[in-house]
Design brief:
767 residues; Aldehyde Oxidoreductase, domain 4; 3 domains; 28% helix; alpha+beta; 21% strand; 7-stranded mixed sheet; single chain; 20 helices; globular; 6-stranded mixed sheet
């Protein structure tokens, strides 16, 4: 078979070839295990067939006789171009031609291992795996070519999809045609020589992203686009509380007048994901929407029907007041009491963050049915398949082996789709209908009402100083509703006092500053957990713990009479635990100091500013200490004292994330993350009122608008260190940098986010 045109060239595509050959009686079937996989470069998302035989040096990719390489991606795509980034790691090590690369977002089959896309883990964790896989293929291809030519393998080299020697050239496809069977054990993979980082040709360079074309021309298939023949639509009716509400009765007599209405079902959910829910079923999406408005429901409301945000904050303060509560993190010397007792001076402040919704663009949706083979198919975008499958199994009363989640592109995730609770109502409805295909698409108010929001938090920080105003001790006490406690308690380690804690609700408090004795205490807010289902939101713990740490560091600098930049630099000492104990963290506090200096240089730290205008700076890391991305933010803000409006004019970010695999994707992610941080700092936040989120749409829930966007600059520190994560860290220093700039501009210190104009105006009256 002659080779087909490369991607982007004129002529018939391989999909076109498939269709044409089928028309004349020749058919190539898709492999069964790829039925639930997706190629984002294909207009309909279906995986193009391979040509001839294939060689699979590793679980992670295959090479066919045309030299096309399918790279299996177990990470979910939600705008970060993760497939392109991971595929280039493999292609670079393999010495493949980028034109021959295709990516496949795979289904939830167990062979892919533990599937989760979050925590900014994807590239950092994929880096060694895909490099080893690429090295395996390169080794096998070189060995095969050397054997064919009768020469030593050391006399051959791989380059751009070919094996080259003095004997000539053989393409990868030609070598596969000859027949390759070389396999590698896990031990062999770990010992394969990798290319020196300096010899990488695709990593860090500009390449064509494999999913952008279809995203821009509207052909990408998202979960909301999923459809199968014979499906019905189900629209949910949500109860008055997240937990504890029970349906007493319902009346659907008026709904029966809607053409296409079929019935209303009260869900019985053994997983506890959607208690008190009803599903209105119709033959069309519109009919289900109309009918649901006509169904009258009476509930027994849950116990949290009268709980509001103020109650959760007050409860949090009460919890922090009890020193026996919570878990103490291992930060070295945690015996701070004696140091504070002998301190020359101390400061203490409290910081609060409001509830934050995910509000992703694609509302929650799922299509579920039982196929002819008795397998439950779940068609939906999902960030954490390995967490969602057991919940689906419990809800359906099925074995996990009989459930598959098909990969779809996510129209925004930001952590909301880590919790797959939205697949449950569609699955239960399908089960009630005998496995019939059921599609649920939430409207925006339903999506927001059902959100797994970032919990409101309370944080209390203390610092001790000696007679020279040097820091001698620090304490950080924090409480919020813990998502990991609710959704994945197995991921909770224990503190030094034997109590478990949610690492994603306290990371960032265990900072890299050398402050002497240091105590970090994490406390779960049980009232928050009882009222709603806390969720992981982009940047998780560091998104709010860093708000407190870096605001407090600024306050401490002023207390010590030092420049806020120099005050931080003096404490970023790469010694002991702050030197970095993992390959990704090597260099520790010294690398954080470097990004801090870079951000200061970018903004022109120390230069005079106009009236009511000032610079602010903050420095953080994300996500965890064993995989830190060092990031600093410097901002220029102007405060209008007449109305309290803060205008962020410049927002500059300096980042050390190790080797930058995908420059375009990295910059885009950091821009988006920084603007998310700005949004949560000034505009984005809700509150609980009577057991429900106050805001249900974008008329009152007001994220950052285009006209409020400042000048944004992102600079990466050149590095030879292994890559860390980039999806979230740039969120974390933005809010404190703005708060610090506001203080410099008008002398007002705000300690709650979002920082509303009304809060600033009120504070100005007290100055």
């Amino acid at each position: 078979m002659s080779r087909l045109p490369k991607r982007g060239s004129a002529g018939m595509t391989r999909r076109g070839f498939l269709i044409a050959m089928t028309a004349v009686g020749v058919s190539f079937g898709f492999p069964r295990h790829l039925m639930a996989a997706m190629d984002p470069a294909s207009p309909d998302g279906k995986v193009l067939p391979s040509e001839g035989d294939i060689y699979e040096p590793s679980l992670w990719y295959s090479i066919d006789t045309a030299g096309k390489i399918k790279v299996n991606i177990m990470r979910s795509e939600m705008g970060q171009h993760v497939g392109t980034a991971i595929a280039r790691i493999l292609a670079d090590e393999l010495e493949a031609s980028w034109d021959d690369i295709e990516i496949i977002h795979v289904d939830s089959d167990p062979r892919w291992g533990y599937m989760v896309t979050g925590g900014s883990w994807s590239i950092s964790q994929s880096w060694p795996v895909y490099r080893q896989a690429g090295a395996a293929g390169r080794t096998a291809l070189i060995e095969a070519a050397a054997k064919k030519w009768g020469i030593a393998a050391k006399d051959c080299k791989a380059s751009n999809g070919k094996i080259i020697s003095s004997k000539g050239e053989l393409t990868f496809g030609e070598l596969v045609t000859m027949g390759l069977t070389r396999q590698f054990t896990e031990e062999e993979l770990k010992t394969l020589p990798l290319k020196p980082n300096a010899d990488l040709k695709l990593v860090g360079q500009q390449v064509t992203s494999l999913d952008i074309a279809n995203k821009t021309n509207g052909k990408t298939i998202f979960g909301i686009d999923a459809k199968v023949d014979g499906m019905v639509y189900a629209n949910p009716i949500l109860p008055p509380t997240r937990y504890g509400s029970k349906v007493v009765k319902f009346d659907d007599s008026a709904a029966k007048a809607v053409k296409g209405y079929q019935q209303t079902i009260v869900l019985d959910d053994a997983s506890g994901s959607v208690p008190g829910w009803l599903m209105v079923i119709a033959s069309s999406f519109t009919a289900a929407q109309k009918a649901s408005k006509l169904v009258k429901v009476t509930w027994d409301a849950g116990e949290t029907a009268n709980v509001s945000e103020a109650d959760i904050i007050a409860h949090g303060k009460q919890l922090l007041g009890d020193q026996t509560k919570g878990s103490i993190l291992d930060t070295g010397n945690t015996d701070t009491g004696p140091v504070f007792a002998s301190a020359k001076s101390t400061i203490a402040e409290e910081y609060i963050t409001s509830t934050v919704l995910h509000a992703q663009m694609e509302p929650l949706n799922a299509l579920v049915f039982k196929n002819q083979n008795g397998i439950w198919e779940v068609h939906s975008g999902c960030q954490w398949q390995s967490l969602t499958l057991p919940v689906l199994a419990t809800a359906l009363g099925e074995d996990e082996a009989n459930i598959v989640i098909r990969s779809y592109m996510l129209g925004g995730g930001f952590g909301r789709r880590l919790n797959g609770d939205y697949t449950i109502p569609a699955a239960l409805t399908s089960k009630a209908l005998g496995g019939k295909p059921v599609k649920m698409v939430m409207m925006r108010p339903q999506d927001m009402l059902f959100d797994s929001a970032r919990s409101a938090s309370v944080q209390q920080l203390k610092m001790a100083f000696d007679d020279k105003k040097a820091v001698t001790a620090m304490e950080h006490h924090a409480t919020a509703g813990w998502p990991t406690q609710v959704l994945a308690p197995g991921f909770m380690p224990k503190g030094t006092n034997g109590e478990p804690f949610d690492p994603f609700s306290i990371a960032g408090a265990d900072h890299w500053y050398s402050v002497g004795a240091q105590k970090v205490r994490a406390v779960s807010n049980d009232l928050a957990i009882a009222t709603f289902r806390p969720g992981w939101l982009r940047s998780v713990g560091p998104g709010w713990t860093s708000w407190a740490v870096e605001s407090f560091m600024d306050e401490a600098a002023h207390h010590a009479g030092k420049d806020p930049l120099q005050f931080r630099l003096d404490m970023l000492i790469a010694e002991g635990r702050n030197a970095g104990t993992t390959p990704v963290a090597e260099g520790g506090a010294a690398r954080q100091a470097a990004v801090l200096k870079k951000a200061a240089e970018m903004i022109g730290w120390g230069t005079p500013q106009a009236k009511d205008t000032a610079l602010g700076i903050a420095s953080t890391f994300g996500q965890e200490r064993d995989m830190p991305t060092w990031v600093s933010c410097a901002v220029q803000v102007h405060v209008d004292k007449t109305n309290g409006i803060v205008n962020v004019q410049k927002l500059y970010i300096a980042i050390d994330a190790g080797i930058i695999v995908d420059p375009n994707g990295a910059e885009a992610q950091c821009q988006g993350a920084a603007l998310w941080g700005l949004s949560m700092a000034l505009y984005e936040g809700t509150e609980l009122l009577n057991g429900q989120y106050k805001d249900s749409n974008f008329d009152t829930y007001t994220p950052l608008r285009l006209g409020q966007t400042p000048e944004v600059k992102i600079e990466f520190i050149p590095s030879k260190m292994p890559p860390s994560g980039l999806g979230e860290p740039a969120v974390t220093p933005v809010a404190p940098a703005i708060a610090n700039a506001i203080y410099q501009a008008v002398g007002v210190r705000l300690r709650k986010i979002p920082m509303r104009p009304s809060d600033l105006k009120s504070a100005l009256t007290k100055v």
